[in-house]
Each structure stands twice: as C-alpha cells, then as structure tokens.
Amino acid sequence: MAGTGTSHLRSADDALLRVEDLVVEFPVSGGRTVHAVSGISFDLLEGETLGLVGESGCGKSSSGRAILQLRPPTSGSVRLEGVELTELDHRELRRMRTRLQMVFQDPISSLNPRRRVRDIVAEGLDIWGRPDDADQRIDDTLRAVGLDPDVVGDRRPHEFSGGQCQRISIARALIMDPQVLVCDEPVSALDVSVQAQILNLLHDMRGRFGLTMIFIAHDLSVVNHIADRVMVMYLGKVCEVAAPGDLFRNPHHPYTELLISSIPKPDPRVGRSDPLPPGEMPSPTDPPGGCRFRTRCPHATDRCANEEPALVEISTGRHVACHHPLP
User: Fold this and answer.
1) What superfamily does domain 1-81+216-327 belong to in CATH?
2) What SS3 class is residue 85?
3) For 209-237, what is each residue's pLDDT tens digit?
4) Where are the beta strands (DSSP E) in 179-326?
5) pLDDT single digits (tens) 16-74
6) Which of 34, 126, 236, 298 has the most CB atoms less than 10 A away?
7) Is 42 helix (H, G, I), strand (E, B) or coil?
8) 52 with 231: CB under 8 angstroms?
C-alpha cells in the first residue's frame, strides 16, 4: 500500500541529494489536477544508485524531471549538497544544472537530428565556454562509451541504431562531469541484447566517473542489476524501500510482490507465478483516499480506505508503507 513518510531518510549531512515531500501536480482540462507525485521523499549518498520502479503513470519520470527542475515541483524540497534547488533564480539554477545531467528514454528523439555527433557531445562545453582541451575531452568521452570518435564524430543521429544513440546521449551527459546522473528508463526502448550492453556501460561509467545515479525503470529485473537501493512507487506514492536483493528475496509490500511475480520466467512452461492485480491503475486526477493501492490490493481492509499508511522500518534497511505488510 502506498503512503508517505521519512523514516527511510538518512542523515542530511551524509546525503549528496535529499528530496523531501516532493509534490508534482499538473492542471488539465475541466479544472482537474493530475496528482503525479504526492509527497515522496528519498536521498542519495555519493556513489550510490537509487532505482525508482513502478508501473507507467506512477510518477517516476515526473520525480526525475522535478529534481532537475525541468518542470519545477509544486512543492517540496530538493537539496544538492545542502543547496536548495527550488529557491534558486534562473541564473543560479542554470549553473547548478551542470552538476545534474539526464539521460532520456528515447535515445533517438533526444538528439538533434541536424547536428553531428561531435557537436552534440560538445554542446554543454560550448555553452559554458569551450575549454582548450575540448577536442581531447570529446574524443576521450566517446571512447569511454564505446564509440570511435574518428568513425562517428562527423555523422548524424539518424545513421545510428538506438543503442548507439543512447551511448551518444550518455557521452553528452558525462562530458559535463556531473555529480548526479538521472537515467529515465534509458533501456526501455532498446532490444534486450542492447539493454544489457547499456546497463553494463552505465555500471562501468559509475565506477570510472564516480557517478551517483537515479535509475528510473518499470522493470524490476533491470533495476536489480544496477541499483544499491530500490524505491517502489504506485500512483505518486512510495510503497517500499529496500536493497534489491532483499526486495527480490522477500518483498513485504503486496504491490512489490505482484510486480516481482509478473516478471517473465526463463522457462516458458513456468510462466508467471501470479498475475498483476486486476483492473487498471486509478486515475491520477482522482486517486483513492487512504491507501492508493487498496482498490487493487488482495489484502485491503476498511482501515486501508480510511487511513493512509506511513513508511515505517520493519527491519534493518527495510521500509514499507502498508497496514498489512507481508511476513
């Protein structure tokens, strides 16, 4: 069941990035409001990777964009090394964004089709004043993501596959030497074999560049291979926070259990152990009261309709927002 709370947050002095009570809402036609993110909190230690997972429409991407202030959050706090990003003016925020970079979901549409690869990767350097060693940095960064600058430098995005375009997108982000890299479903548009290559690349880049990452995905099996902590979201709320190994071995939240059981098994004779919950996710313009997952939860009771659960620590490093957590 999905709720709010800050029991999973660690010391503010230790956190590189700290997000508290983040709310993202969008006005739509008819005077209605989309409640995309409703009071979530999380933090990131330096060098850590946090996985944000959940079904489409749960608020993962809205959270990632709000952190970079691509669309300022409706309310809440976003602090990078103690600096409150939501209070910065345009000039200060623009400068802070060099320390926060994003890799988008669709690698082809996120690249300017009219520009050469070398110019795409160099764009950030050009904006802030091209350094004397720019050409060498561009070559080194392209090689770091597995591309030969002499072969790809003068070509344009339409000449490459989706996987190659994502490598270019990663190079564009890395050349700014960011402290935090937000990856918004960076492999969901790619073939399975290419997904593995990009995941391995991000894992290598994490160690090589000392990256701190937020990895957004709807596939738990993908996050399991790259994240240090996983935060499961449902309809704009947090369900569970845990290390990926603990989450897979013994999920305590009914929604997490159903997400894991929906992962296809390698043996087609086995299939899925359990289906996803019946029905569709409720509309984010009119989310259920109490626990937002209760309309699809097999364990829901009257308490779930009347009282929103708060995140509580049920074992070391395990935080669950549920009135009836699984054993």
Assistant:
1) P-loop containing nucleotide triphosphate hydrolases (3.40.50.300)
2) helix
3) 888 999 999 888 888 888 999 999 999 99
4) 180-184, 212-217, 229-234, 237-242, 312-315, 318-320
5) 999 999 999 999 888 899 999 999 999 999 999 999 999 888 999 999 999 999 989 99
6) 236
7) strand
8) yes
Interatomic CA distance for residues 90 and 69, integer angstroms = 10
pLDDT of residue 224: 85
CA distance 105 to 185: 5
Which pLDDT score, from 0 to 100, does residue 30 have? 86
Q: What distance lies between CA 213 and its chain's CA centroid? A: 8
At 150, list the tokens. Answer: 């002499």
- Using DSSP's 3-state secondary structure scheme, residue 18 falls into strand
- The DSSP string of 94-140 is HHHGGGEEEE-S-TTTTS-TTS-HHHHHHHHHHHT---TTHHHHHHH
CA 247 to chain CA mean position, Å: 17
Distance CA 223, CA 112 (A): 29
CA dist., res. 53 & res. 51, Å (int): 6
Q: Is the pLDDT of residue 200 over 80?
A: yes
Packed helices 162-174 and 134-144: angle between N→C axes, nearest 10 degrees:
130
How far apart CA 245 and CA 72 sit, in angstroms, is: 34
What pLDDT score does 156 carry?
93
Contact between residue 59 and residue 285 where contact means Cβ atoms under 8 Å apart = no
Ordered DSSP codes for 194-226: HHHHHHHHHHHHHHHHT-EEEEEES-HHHHTTT
Token output for 88: 């910065």
